[in-house]
Specification:
The complex is a heterodimer of chains A (440) and B (142).
Chain A: H1 3-26, H2 32-53, H3 59-76, H4 92-109, H5 116-132, H6 137-140, H7 155-167, H8 172-196, H9 201-221, H10 229-244, H11 249-265, H12 269-288, H13 293-316, H14 333-344, H15 359-362, H16 369-388, H17 393-420, H18 429-437
Helix pairs in contact in A: 1-2, 1-3, 1-7, 1-8, 2-8, 2-11, 2-13, 4-8, 4-9, 5-7, 8-9, 8-10, 8-17, 9-17, 10-11, 10-12, 10-16, 10-17, 11-12, 11-13, 12-13, 12-16, 14-17, 16-17
Chain B: H1 2-29, H2 47-62, E1 68-73, H3 78-91, E2 96-99, E3 111-115, E4 125-131, E5 134-139
Chain lengths: 440, 142
């Protein structure tokens, strides 16, 4: 555990978040979480560009562009809308959530709760990219590297490699800190979402604490430190504010950025990106009866900018794995059903995994219907993969479902809290801001 | 009633958090004596991966970084052999670690690391003992 190893991820995360907020602010978004994701997506595009150009990464190449964006943004871009979506005053639920964040992160720094996938997959890639000063496609293309999913999107190992480059060495604690950063982003997203939904103080505080408790418990008990599932969970939660309000220009951008971030993070993020885009397009069509080019641009450009180069690189290097999909076999239901029941009993979830059944009733609540549609589609996609992937089905379900549920349960819990609250108690964010200003 | 439901859920979540925290801390305190035979359940800082790490640290002194090496495990089943190989890849990031003997035809691998008593039956290779149950097999020079 070295100071440089800890300062590197924190410094990089703060720089990307602040620079990203300038960009997202210019697109009309007031969400700080969306700003942070914008910065992370921009970072991914930067290192992708360096790889395409064959330029080896260096600390200067990784830091100067975002710093430049920040400086130019401060000079030329309009100030982001007031950060009213993340009020500075902390309540009791925020305090409990910070406690959960702190204990999870401190334990993660010891690597005791590190996910096995950090050892077998993400960490190996990150360390290798650090040594190669870039995404090492020659390494990924070796036939035995099917075991590390060479075709997966690379944002997490890119962040690991960049962190190691800045710190001067690959420090496991520094890599684990990224999970703490994503947990913090998740909580900030929950806070923004509950506020956007107009939830009252009790529901806001109870909601954020509930999500933090459930997530921290499973994060420790199911060994989730260093896992990329956090990033998918953050992407879904970051889309919540836009999904909880009528579709608008800022929401299009926030959804597009959440989709891009998901697509850059993990293979499951690619279909999620598609679902986020499709749901927002459908909402736009329903509300406006037409799609203007600006909407399509804000919504589709970010995930396309991430997804197309990823697919091009994967195809160019022949990395696509046959084990990703196969024929749909309904007979697998006999294996999938019992295995899902076992996975639903994963002790570290303490029952909160059962929230995967909530999207169905939530579909009948108009305010959270869009959220329910997105998470339902994602869960159905996960099920579809179980019916098609040419691998040991029972093992696949048992080894993955508790993690896949982790990607959507935080957002489902938020939607459930919003749906639980009686509508008459709800205030719009503007009214809450007025209340804060008046000291209420 | 709605607040009560949320309050109970919150209380339950808090108990879950404390339970997992307590379990994790207890495990962490016992990490130096944490015995887990199956490598898919090994954790960083526990004796089994540390034993493998000691072996592989010797390997990195005699095999140049950047090479492709193969890793042979004496694990009793495919799963054990697979995950020991993955641990070896994690512990040797400067090398491209392939699984022995499942190599593509024609793949040149000058060095095979044999771990845990694994036997490498290749008459063209000579054995070099590094530590107990930790050996390398190099291609014989003519």
């Amino acid at each position: 555990l070295s100071p440089a190893g800890l300062l590197a991820p924190l410094g990089l995360a703060v720089l990307l978040a602040v620079a990203g907020r300038r960009l997202s602010g210019a697109a009309g978004s007031a969400s700080r979480v969306s700003g942070a994701l914008t910065g992370l997506v921009a970072f991914h595009l930067l290192v992708t560009l360096l790889d395409v150009l064959g330029v080896r990464w260096s600390p200067a190449l990784l830091l100067v562009p975002p710093a430049l964006v920040l400086v130019l943004g401060l000079r030329f871009l309009p100030r982001p809308a007031a950060g009213a979506r993340l009020p500075s005053r902390l309540g009791w639920g925020d305090g409990l959530a910070l406690f959960a964040l702190a204990v999870f992160t401190l334990l993660a720094l010891t690597a005791w709760t590190a996910t096995p996938d950090f050892i077998f997959h993400w960490g190996v890639k990150g360390h290798r990219f650090f040594l190669a000063r870039g995404v090492d496609y020659a390494y990924l293309a070796q036939p035995w590297h099917w075991a590390i999913h060479p075709d997966y999107p690379n944002l997490m190992p890119e962040l690991f490699a960049a962190t190691a480059l800045l710190a001067g060495r690959f420090d496991v604690a520094g890599m684990m800190l990224w999970t703490g950063i994503f947990f913090a982003l998740l909580l900030a997203g929950v806070r923004e979402a509950l506020r956007e939904a107009g939830s009252g103080p009790f529901y806001r505080q109870a909601g954020i604490a509930l999500v933090a408790f459930a997530v921290a418990a499973v994060g420790m008990g199911h060994l989730m430190a260093g896992a990329t599932d956090w990033m998918i969970a953050v992407a879904v939660v970051a889309a919540l504010p836009a999904l909880l309000r009528p579709p608008d220009r800022a929401g299009d951008f926030e959804m597009g950025v959440a989709a891009a971030f998901a697509a850059a993070s993990k293979i499951e993020g690619v279909p999620l990106a598609g679902f986020l885009v499709l749901v927002q397009l459908a909402r736009r069509l329903r509300a406006d009866r037409r799609l203007d080019p600006g909407t399509v641009l804000r919504l589709v450009l970010p995930p396309a900018a991430v997804g197309l180069p990823w697919m091009a690189r994967v195809l160019h290097h022949g990395l696509l794995q046959k084990a990703n999909s196969g024929a749909f076999e309904i007979s697998r239901a006999a294996e999938i059903g019992p295995a899902l029941l076992e996975a639903l009993a994963t002790p570290a979830w303490h029952g909160f995994i059962l929230a995967v059944f909530l999207p169905l009733p939530l579909l009948f609540r108009p305010q959270v219907r869009a959220v329910a549609v997105v998470v339902s589609l994602q869960l159905l996609f996960d099920l579809y993969v179980y019916f098609t992937a040419p691998v040991d089905t029972r093992f696949y379900v048992l080894s993955s479902f508790a993690r896949l549920a982790f990607q959507v349960v935080p957002a489902i819990l938020v939607a459930a809290v919003v749906a639980l609250e009686p509508p008459r108690q709800k205030q719009r964010p503007a009214e809450q801001s007025a209340g804060l200003l008046q000291g209420r | 009633m709605r607040r009560l439901i949320l309050g109970i859920a919150l209380l339950w979540g808090g108990l879950g958090l404390l339970t997992e925290l307590s379990r994790a801390l207890a495990g962490y305190d016992r990490r130096e004596s944490w015995l887990e035979e199956r490598p898919e359940y090994w954790r960083l800082g526990t004796p089994e991966p540390a034993r493998l790490e000691r072996c592989l640290a010797r390997v990195s002194k005699v095999v140049p970084a950047g090479s492709t090496i193969a890793f042979a495990s004496a694990g009793p089943d495919q799963s054990t052999r697979f995950f020991e190989w993955r641990w070896a890849a994690w512990l040797l990031p400067a090398y491209d670690v392939a699984p022995w003997p499942d190599l593509p035809p024609g793949q040149p691998v000058p060095t095979v690391v044999a771990w845990g008593g694994a036997q490498v039956r290749d008459p063209q290779r000579e054995r070099v003992r590094l530590l107990p149950k930790c050996e390398i097999y190099r291609v014989r020079r003519p």
